[in-house]
């Protein structure tokens, strides 16, 4: 079933990209494997063409090192607590999507400095103005980017958002369009040590809209693995 779901998603993805006149590899597909078992993650990796994303450091460290085949890329997409930074770094994430505070960025930078490593990160933006959502407020984004850009062991590679929880497509599209505009605006600032490359937006319910609005990383869970069961 997972293999079939993945095939369906990939063919949808190809269709959208073709329609937009973009190359077939224009979008990175992340399989969000939170709550999924090692066996299931192995199935997704061997099916091919996906990267792996987890949102909890603890869960990720119980699974990622024990996979039969290591994923080509591992992405962290959850809230990063400072007491979990070293544990996350041990997993060598290719990209951390969720930096939204200078204090976390500084702690991450310090930990990286001790290991002499550079970490690519995205800045998470709250585009929906929902109080419970993580992410920096749009009006505070530029200042945060400028402060993080000074930290030598972090490399900003773009922006990430989670859209509004709504059935109204225009409200969802508005969130994604907002992130794209912020992305462009920061790009135009040409800030040293900032390389605006990735727009991480779009989940199972809204990835088509996200790609139309310029996403080049999408994060898909339930459409690949079925409805999640939380223990
Ligand atoms: C769980 C999660 C996803 C995937 O959600 P689905 O709706 O199952 O595709 C994507 N991004 C983040 C940040 C998540 O926490």
Could you give a short description of this structure?
Helix content is 42%, strand content 18%. It has 231 residues and is α/β, with parallel strands linked by helices. The two termini are 22 Å apart.
Structural notes for this entry:
With 231 residues, the chain is of the alpha/beta class. The chain has helices at 2-20, 38-47, 57-63, 85-90, 102-115, 141-149, 169-189, 207-212, 222-225, and strands at 28-32, 51-54, 74-76, 95-99, 119-124, 154-160, 194-200, 217-220. The chain contains nine helices and eight strands. 38% of the residues are buried. The model has no long low-confidence stretch (mean pLDDT 96). It binds pyridoxal-5'-phosphate.
Tell me the strand percentage band.
15-25%
Bound molecules: pyridoxal-5'-phosphate
User: What share of the residues lie within helices?
Assistant: 40-55%
The DSSP helix count reads 9
Give the overall form: globular
């Amino acid at each position: 079933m997972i293999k079939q779901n993945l095939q369906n998603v990939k063919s949808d993805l190809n269709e959208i990209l073709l329609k937009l006149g973009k190359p077939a590899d224009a979008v990175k597909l992340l399989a969000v494997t939170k709550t999924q078992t090692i066996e299931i993650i192995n199935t997704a990796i061997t099916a091919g063409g996906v990267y792996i994303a987890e949102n909890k450091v603890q869960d990720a460290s119980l699974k990622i090192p024990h996979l039969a085949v290591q994923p080509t890329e591992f992405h962290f997409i959850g809230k990063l607590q400072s007491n979990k930074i070293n544990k996350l770094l041990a997993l060598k994430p290719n990209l951390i999507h969720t930096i939204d505070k200078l204090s976390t960025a500084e702690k991450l930078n310090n930990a990286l400095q001790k290991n002499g490593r550079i970490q690519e990160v995205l800045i998470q933006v709250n585009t929906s103005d929902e109080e419970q959502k993580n992410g920096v407020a749009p009006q505070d984004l530029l200042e945060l980017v400028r402060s993080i850009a000074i930290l030598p062991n972090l490399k900003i590679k773009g922006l990430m958002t989670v859209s509004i929880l709504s059935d109204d497509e225009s409200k969802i599209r508005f969130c994604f369009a907002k992130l794209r505009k912020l992305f462009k605006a920061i790009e135009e600032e040409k800030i040293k040590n900032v390389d605006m490359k990735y727009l991480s937006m779009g989940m199972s319910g809204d990835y088509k809209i996200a790609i139309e609005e310029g996403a080049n990383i999408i994060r898909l869970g339930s459409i690949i693995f079925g409805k999640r069961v939380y223990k």
